[in-house]
Each structure stands twice: as structure tokens, then as C-alpha cells.
Amino acid sequence: MQSNLAPAGSIKRRRIDVSADKQDYSPSKGGASAFPQPTEAHAALMAGGLGGSDDSDGSEDEELGPRPTMQPRSENDIQGRLRDLEKIAIYMAQKTRTTKKAKKQLRVELDENSTHVAQLELEKGVLTTKVDTAEKQVQKLQSEKRQCQDELEDTQRKHKSQMSQMHDDQQRLQKDVAGLREELEETRTNLKSKRSECTRLESTVSKQASDQIELESSCRGLRAKVEQLEYVVNEREIRIAELEQDVATRSHTIEELEAKLRKEETMRRNLHNTIQELKGNIRVFCRVRPLLGEEKDAGAALPISFPSCEDNNQIELTQSSENALGRTTSKAFPFKFDRVFSTESTQDIVFDEVSQLIQSALDGYPVCIFAYGQTGSGKTHTMQGPDTISADEKDAQVLGIIPRAVKQIYQNTSKLAERGWEYSLEGQFLEIYNETIQDLLAPAARAPTTGKQTKLDIYQDSEGHTRVKNVTTVSVDSAERVHWLLARAAENRTVAATNCNERSSRSHSVFTLYLQGTNTLTGESSSGVLNLIDLAGSERLSSSGSSGDRLKETQAINKSLACLGDVIAALAKGNRHIPYRNSKLTHLLQESLGAGNSKTLMFVCVNPSPLSAQESLCSLQFATKVNSCQIGTARRQAAS
Fold this sequence. Notes:
Distance between the termini: 135 Å
Order of helices and strands: HHEHEEEEHEHHEEEEEHEEEEHHHEH
């Protein structure tokens, strides 16, 4: 339905702001007579301006412009003030006429908008009626739709049932057709087989006739070939006889070379032993560990220096002290040993110097290597490696002397096996704690009555070798077995914290490896012993801060080391009586310290920290005494 009314947006709205201009005029100080009274002309002018007719629709709106204001004048300028008031009165009259015109126009627009609203209401009623009619039609169509859907579902169910029945009939017919086709195919196959069999029999008969002719020809060729092969066999038999004679000759040469090799192996052992004796049966190596942790942060000057020399066998310690006048004086103490390892020396470099002694143990000589020094100087690191290493995670570069020595022995025994040597290795691990020997591999082996560990005593066997009674001996059948031994011993070894070292070894540990070798070709035998010893750290009571059990341990350690010093001093002086039995340590090392025929190496480990300068000086002085000792010539031991 078309509407003759204007759209709602076309309704005119106008907003006219009419501001009432107010001006307060205050009388001057001269009183009311200061302002002139309006004249008759002025009154007529104001009456004509304000009282104008409202019927002026055809005229355009006057532009009022800005509102006139009172100009500042003197009190005597009455005429000027009067002119300003007249201007203001004329402006107000014009503004009143403009406001009345706007009010009249707004009333006209309001009437038009009211008519428009009435027309819109009428259209709304018509549209509402149409919507109701359309909704009724929709409901009717939906009802018809539901009825058609029900009819469609019934038709689909009937069609589906018919299709299912037709599908079953089709499958049954297909099976019948397939069966008939199989029977037809089988019949055709049988017929084809019979025909091919007839053809084959015909060709077989023809081929057999030709084969007979070929066989007769082949027999003649084979007879000629047999005669030729018999001639070749005769020639090869002659060649085989010549080769057998050559093999016999070369076997005799190989036997002579093997005998010569065994002879040279014996000569090598003798020469190797001679070289080791020339180096000295008691040798001293010095190793200075690098600074660790807080020692690096201290930044103090190191008291240790290494003078330049080709043999790398010199070290110098500088000690500072104050005299009575309070002046600081420094004194240098030079030392010279068989070999000096600086702080940059790795485990590989250290073991290269020791490996020759390990070979001597395999050749049948008793060998002893022990580490001496104050606590925290790196003795356990040198002998075993880092404390945190495990059997599952082994870094070859940080392993100590003990695991490296066993690895070298296994490598060399594998090579010697080609020359007829067979070796068996057995190991034991002891510690001397408070002058008591304890078995580190069997800490739970205790007597049934007392509940304490079985007593271990030192004795001399029938051959004069130092042995320990009731100790646990383990067969070392692989190099990895040593890692288990080290881990087991580390769990049971006595350690404690002191002011000098938070993990100080409180006992002397002794690892002994017995090597029994037999040569099945020459009948030779050898019996070597390898003692690898990690001594407890020496420390002064004033610096260790020990008390209670730690004090007792420190006293026992210092006593045993003092006894070791007495033995070294007696050996250096050539005394007839050597006090080996003054301590368990020297008694156990009796065979390695001059009473036997051992090749002995001492590692003096030094802490480079300035705080340990005094202990380092004592260690170096003790090592100098050991280096001056002379013991008897080592002799190779044959297995009994």
C-alpha cells in the first residue's frame, strides 16, 4: 500500500535559541539625574519597534548581527549614552520580531508532523493484518508438508522392502550363473589338458629319438674329456707334493722364528728391567694440582714455580715470613726429583711416565706405587680418578693410575697370549685406619660370635713375601671389574670433613694385584705383584681443627707417616736395623721399601695454595729424603 505521507525523517525540526539579554544599568555616583530622560521622539521610536505587527510572513529574516554594547563614556556625555541605549532598544525590538516568526513556523511544522504520524499508524494497522494472514497460510502449508513427509516415508519403506527382495533374487541368480560358469570352465580345461597331453606325447617321442642321437655323440666327447682330466690330475698331484714339501720347510722356519721371538721377548724383559734399574729402584715424582674454586678467586701469588729445564724435574717453593722488625722476607727452596708434573699436566701425561713400571709387574717383578702429601693435595685423584665417577659412566681422560694400570695389563696380556703366555689376575683392597687393617671389599664379613670384622694380620709367606691373613681376594677377569672394586672400596673407605678438606681420607688405602703367568710353549713362569697405595693426608692439628674421633684419626695418620719417615731415614743412612714394625703401614710396605726387591715409585702431591705453603714444604723435604734412598737390585720372581 502506497502512503501519501512524507517519511518520518522528513519532519522538520528547528531549534531556536532565544537568550534574554539582560543588562544591568547602575546609576552613577551623581544620582538618577545622571542619565537623561527619554524624549518624545525616543519613546515613539521604541513604541514603533516593539509594537510592530506579527503579520510580516512575507518579509525575510533580518540579520541582527552582534548585540550592541554600552561604550565607555564620560559622566557628562549624556547624548552619547542616550544613543547607545537607542541602539540597544532597536536591536531588542528586531530580535523580538524574529523570535515570533520562528515560533509561528514551528507551529506549522508541528501540525504537518501530527498528520504524518496519523498516516503511519494507519499503515501499521494494514501491515499487521497482512502479517496475521501470512502466518495462517504458513501454518497450513506446514501441516500439508508433514502429511506429505509421512506419505513419502511409507512409500520409501515399501520401496526398500521390494529392493531387498529383488537383491536377494539377484544374488541367488548370480550364484547359479557362477556355478554354471565354473562347470563350463572346468570342462574346457579338461579338454585343453587332454589335447596338450596328446601334443606333448607326440613331441616326447620325437625328442627322445633326437636325444638318443645326441647322447651317443656326448659319450664320445666325455670319454675324450676324461682322458684330458686324468692328465691334469696327475700334474696337480705332482704340484701338491711339491707344495707339501715347501710347507714343511716353512713350518720349520716359523718354529725357528717363534723360538727366536720368545728369546727376544726374554731379552726385552731383561733390557726393560735394566732400564728401570738405571732409573733407580726408588723414584720420586712430584705432581702439583691446579687451583680449585675459592683458591682461584683469592688471586694471591702462588708460592710454587717451575724452573725451565729439559728434563722437567725441578720445582721451587718460595716461603714468606716476617722478621723481628716486621719486615717480610722471602726464601726460595729448590727441589729436584725424577719428574715434576705442573698444574697443566693431565692424567694421560702422568700415566705415560708410570706405564713402564706397570710393564715390570707383568714381567714378574714386584712393583709399588704410592701417593704422599697433605690432605686435599690430589692423591686420590692421581691414584683412582675423580670421586664422582661411576662404573656406567667412565671418562678415559680422567681415570687414575689404578684403572689405567689394569687396562694396560689386560691389553698386554692379550698380545702375549699369541706368544704362549697365559695370565691370571687377583686383586685385594685394604685400608689402614687407626692402626687397624680393614678389608674394603668385605666390610660385612664379621665373626659370628663377636659381630666384628675378622681380624686381619700381616705375615711373611714361605717365599718371604708380605701377605695379609683372612683378606678377601677377588678374581679380576676384566678391566671393568676394577671399576666395581674402586666403587665398592670408595663406599667403605673412611672419610670425614676437616678444616683442610671437606672430604678428607682418614685412612691409608692399599690396592694389590697379583699376576701369575705361564708360557705353555717354553714352560716359563712369572709371578708379579702390583701395589697401588693412596696414603692418608698429612695435616697439622692446628690447621685441621680436629677434635674427638677426628683428633684420634689425625694422630694415628701422623704417627704412621712419621714411622714411614723413620724408615726412609734409616734406609738413607744405611742402618742395619730398619724399624718396619713400628706401624702397620711400614710393616705392610716392608717388601717395597728396601727389605725386598721391589721397584718403588713415590708420588709427592702438592697443593699450590699459599695457605698450604708450609705443608707443601714439609712434603717436598720428605720426598727429597726418599729420593736419596738406595735399595737392593730387583729380581724377577718365578711362579712356584
